Amino acid sequence: MTTQPARPERSGPGTASVMDVSPFKPSLVKAVFRDVTSMHVSRSAAWAAASVTRTVLTEIIDGARRAAAAEARKKLIPGDLLSAIDRNVELEVGTKWYDHSPTFQGLTGVLYDAEGVIVPSRKRSRSRKPSAVVGAHRFEAGVKKLLRSQGATAVPAMVRDLDGIASVFLTDLARDAAMVVREGGVKRFGTVTPVMSGEPAPPPFLKDSHRALSTRRGDGRTIGRDDILAATTIQLFGGNLRQRALTEAREATQNTSAG
Prior knowledge:
Elements: H1 26-36, E1 40-41, H2 43-70, E2 75-76, H3 78-87, H4 140-149, E3 153-154, H5 156-183, H6 207-214, E4 222-223, H7 225-235, H8 240-253
Helix pairs in contact: 1-2, 1-5, 2-3, 2-5, 2-7, 2-8, 5-7, 7-8
């Protein structure tokens, strides 16, 4: 995957890393976490969550670019998003957004009640209570920056969908990280490793890393970097995307302090 060079951010780790072009600031990450939990979020945890979200969105955009290129288009449209997810099951993240977005209408299936009557789709909430969907607009600037860093442009509807997926994914990541802290580690792991036809199998998840993330140390009031890594293993399948997200998050936080 070829990316265009971007100017380094002025904040964050002191050395060059994948986070040098991060479109999602730690302040935004912490705002999302505050909607989910009252736990303190360490600086390294915020950078790790931003890195994981960036990795996921970058992979989605790359898949959409491939779909657009197959039709000799440069500007991404919602159909390219659907094609990217259809080609790579690892990209099916932030699924709560699917019920909200017109792009996914008809793809999430028709629900029936116990009497066999179709359950109408949920209407948009007018509640002032913060949620991943209500707060999705906070990601617009970051998504546009990420698109530029990938040399891509997208129609407004596609930007909106990437906003929503990023918001829902990060919110789910926050919930799982808080659960890891409360439970003292990961009590469940996604062990399915999807392999695309004709592609080599990804490297196995290291047993030592698996064991290290299944238990945690530290107080029960602070979400740390390792809690984000553990939550990532819950949110993502055990394939290339999860491995890359974990690796880039570790690189992004190697020079950050714990506070």
